[in-house]
Amino acid sequence: MEIRPIFASLRKHRIPALLIVLEIALACAVLCNAVFMISQRVNDIRLPSAIDEQGLVTVTLRGTDDKLVGSEIPRNLAALRGIAGVQQVAITSSLPLSTNNWGWSFGVNADSVIANQKNINVSLYFIGESGDKALGLHMLQGRFFNADELADSKFDTAPLPETHAVVMTHAAAENFWPGQSALGKTIYSKPYYYTVVGVVEDVLRPNISTTNTRKSYDAVYFPMSAAGSKGALSYYILRGAPQDRDRIMREAEQKLAELNPGAVAKGQIYVDIREKYFANMSSMAWMLVLVCVVMLAVTAFGIVGLTSFWVGQRRRQIGIRRAVGATRRHIMQYFQTENLLLTTAGVVVGMGLAFGINVYLMQHYEMSRMPWYYLPGGALALWLLGQASVFGPAQKAASVPPVVATRSV
Amino acid sequence: MFAYYLDLALRSLKQNRVLTALMVLAMGLGIGASMTTLTVFHLLSGDPLPGRSGQLFYPQVDPTPTAAPALPGNMNYIDAVNLWQARRADRQAIMVGGNVKTKAAQAGSRPMSLHTLATTADFFPMFGVRFTQGNAWTAADDLAKARVAVISRSASDRLFHGEGGLGQSIRLGQWNFRVIGVIDDWRPTPHFYELDRESYGDGDEVFIPFLTSRDLAELGITGYSLNCYGNTMDDLHLENQPCLWLNFWVELDSPAKAQAYRQFLDNYAREQQALGRYVQAGSPRTALPSVMQWLDQNGVVPSDVSLKSWIALGFLLVCLMNTTGLLLVKFLRRTTEISVRRALGASRQQIFLQCLVEAVIVGMAGGVLGLLLALAGLWGIRHTPADYADLAHLDLPMFAATFAISLVVSLVAGLLPAWRACHIAPALQLKVI
């Protein structure tokens, strides 16, 4: 395929050619960055959390009398256990992604106090009997709390529990003691200290940072007795089959409201908690998808419009070429090659622009560096788009009969 | 003449419907997408209290032992009460929120969890809160730890089923409060005075005197973010604990007063250092940001929202180029017609204007389409669970801006093609005919 005539013709249509190149460049730049942002959002939304999210139902009960919870919690749990389809019932202080965060900083030395800069901030979950089974925690090492630890743990005046046992996530253990087994080691916040009795697979914190996902899993579990919980235990959790969860949620909320007329009961299925937490992110991702699709459509319209115009303008030339022996294929190839050249120019500029935009976003927003393969990916998408949109007009051009050349002007 | 251009433009647009439709569609999509995101950006980055926010400031001091790069976002009890009692600003108020179990005091009413704000008397006049019934409490009530409450209209509807509730009693936790005022529903956007709660959430529903809330510490009104910088032995009675949990706002009516307050704050911090309460070395740091500065410092507008606006603008630019290309093609296709008009005496300027009129018609049609798309987009946003979802409405300035933008965009898109069209050499083209 000879490309010199194409250059010659493009030189005559500099401005429209330049416009299409710029449009493709801009589309390529926006596309690369938008797709990268979408992938980041999707990664965040899909952050794994090792609990049984599908089957989990929670009812929060607020406004109970702290002096009575010792008898009320066991009574409420027993009532919830009676709901059909409920496999496990427990109580805890908060749930992953519930935004109800209770944080504290611990160190690994016996003299660590809370204000130590080197301490590691973790989210605290307080949990009652069979909480591991109700949440569906996966023990990696050691054990969950035994009956004594659960019964003896209570709050005194401090916001830390009077116990010495703790279960932590694998990620937290790695942060405290990199490369070592955490089992049997101790974390400190003077005068409190807690010895690790078990390590569980990573569970998300109630609030996570979108910039530093390494810290998203720094959570620890403490045992807590109903009587000593001082109102900290307000999330009743029920585990059942996923298809039963809506019914279980309604019945559990109703039951707790009946049993505790003075308190406020609110039921939720866990998947809704997760969805609500990531709602802004998923709406952002959808909006980006929409923008990408529409932008590609608009770019395609532009190419179709411009090429159609060129085809109309060159009917006579096409006729002459056909008359002197060019086949339909030749004519098609002419327009396809022309489009390939324009798109190539566009994506070369576009990849540079995409890189520049990414650098700008990294400086001004919490954005990480775009992996290199997004650039050729965007280029490929626009090449394909260009070829697809030029196909119709090129075919129209190819169908110009040679006889056009013989018509008088 | 203008009517004639209009007629010509319409004829030309009708001649090639597909191309016209493509241009209008491209413009409409570009304008629709950018107006949707810009409207959200405009709503979220707006002034929460227009006309008032310039006089409101958020004093910051740093009682913590370790110097973090940013000053603390909240105050501890001692500093907040000291500054409040100093009364060196025109108005000043302490505030802290919490979810409190509330019900109407009469028997049989169901409890509900309401956003409750413990604050001091100046809160209402300082923020210009409008009362529909009754009044705020007084500074004397603050000191007397009176059991009085102001409720919002929506809270009064829920608690008293539309009977107002003025003079009635409500029960917070296990204590009765007398309702002395009902305010119109008040929801500054963003929720600037207490950012620890979701920034664009509902307004507060129950207001009680701050010192009363400390008297009844079991109510648990300790803010939505408790940040302690030392060992704490009690998380309800926070008066003497090393914890940052209170918001403190002041009103300063003139720049001179703001300057004087800055000085006062600085002196206060030095005095606290001399007393040994502030243990950081070096001269103590203080700050007095205004409302808008405070929102800016806290990065309240979700960065996603401003990112979206950038992307939508990039998209609009793609649409603009697209329209320019198509308009160019369209005008150049009519070279013969233009040449005839030129030969018959039309000046370049007239051809130029004629082409621009055509571009503007396309732009306006695109603007109307864009407006419809923006309305659809905002409808979509209202149905997402984002905490600002229900705010997404097109207001009058944004409505006007849509048309201003479409006019500007279409003029910009039309300039180059029109300029090319009016520079067609008539003789050359006429020869061909």
UniProtKB/TrEMBL annotation, chain A:
<dbReference type="InterPro" id="IPR003838">
    <property type="entry name" value="ABC3_permease_C"/>
</dbReference>
<feature type="transmembrane region" description="Helical">
    <location>
        <begin position="339"/>
        <end position="361"/>
    </location>
</feature>
<feature type="transmembrane region" description="Helical">
    <location>
        <begin position="284"/>
        <end position="312"/>
    </location>
</feature>
<dbReference type="Pfam" id="PF02687">
    <property type="entry name" value="FtsX"/>
</dbReference>
<keyword id="KW-0812">Transmembrane</keyword>
<keyword id="KW-1003">Cell membrane</keyword>
<feature type="transmembrane region" description="Helical">
    <location>
        <begin position="373"/>
        <end position="392"/>
    </location>
</feature>
<dbReference type="Pfam" id="PF12704">
    <property type="entry name" value="MacB_PCD"/>
</dbReference>
<feature type="domain" description="ABC3 transporter permease C-terminal">
    <location>
        <begin position="291"/>
        <end position="402"/>
    </location>
</feature>
<comment type="similarity">
    <text>Belongs to the ABC-4 integral membrane protein family.</text>
</comment>
<keyword id="KW-1133">Transmembrane helix</keyword>
<feature type="domain" description="MacB-like periplasmic core">
    <location>
        <begin position="54"/>
        <end position="242"/>
    </location>
</feature>
<feature type="transmembrane region" description="Helical">
    <location>
        <begin position="15"/>
        <end position="38"/>
    </location>
</feature>
<dbReference type="InterPro" id="IPR050250">
    <property type="entry name" value="Macrolide_Exporter_MacB"/>
</dbReference>
<dbReference type="InterPro" id="IPR025857">
    <property type="entry name" value="MacB_PCD"/>
</dbReference>
<protein>
    <submittedName>
        <fullName>ABC transporter permease</fullName>
    </submittedName>
</protein>
<keyword id="KW-0472">Membrane</keyword>
TrEMBL record, chain B:
<keyword id="KW-0067">ATP-binding</keyword>
<dbReference type="GO" id="GO:0005524">
    <property type="term" value="F:ATP binding"/>
</dbReference>
<keyword id="KW-0472">Membrane</keyword>
<keyword id="KW-0547">Nucleotide-binding</keyword>
<keyword id="KW-0812">Transmembrane</keyword>
<keyword id="KW-1133">Transmembrane helix</keyword>
<protein>
    <submittedName>
        <fullName>ABC transporter ATP-binding protein</fullName>
    </submittedName>
</protein>
<feature type="transmembrane region" description="Helical">
    <location>
        <begin position="21"/>
        <end position="44"/>
    </location>
</feature>
<feature type="domain" description="MacB-like periplasmic core">
    <location>
        <begin position="20"/>
        <end position="262"/>
    </location>
</feature>
<dbReference type="InterPro" id="IPR050250">
    <property type="entry name" value="Macrolide_Exporter_MacB"/>
</dbReference>
<keyword id="KW-1003">Cell membrane</keyword>
<dbReference type="Pfam" id="PF12704">
    <property type="entry name" value="MacB_PCD"/>
</dbReference>
<dbReference type="Pfam" id="PF02687">
    <property type="entry name" value="FtsX"/>
</dbReference>
<feature type="transmembrane region" description="Helical">
    <location>
        <begin position="351"/>
        <end position="379"/>
    </location>
</feature>
<dbReference type="InterPro" id="IPR003838">
    <property type="entry name" value="ABC3_permease_C"/>
</dbReference>
<dbReference type="InterPro" id="IPR025857">
    <property type="entry name" value="MacB_PCD"/>
</dbReference>
<feature type="transmembrane region" description="Helical">
    <location>
        <begin position="399"/>
        <end position="419"/>
    </location>
</feature>
<feature type="domain" description="ABC3 transporter permease C-terminal">
    <location>
        <begin position="311"/>
        <end position="426"/>
    </location>
</feature>
<feature type="transmembrane region" description="Helical">
    <location>
        <begin position="310"/>
        <end position="331"/>
    </location>
</feature>
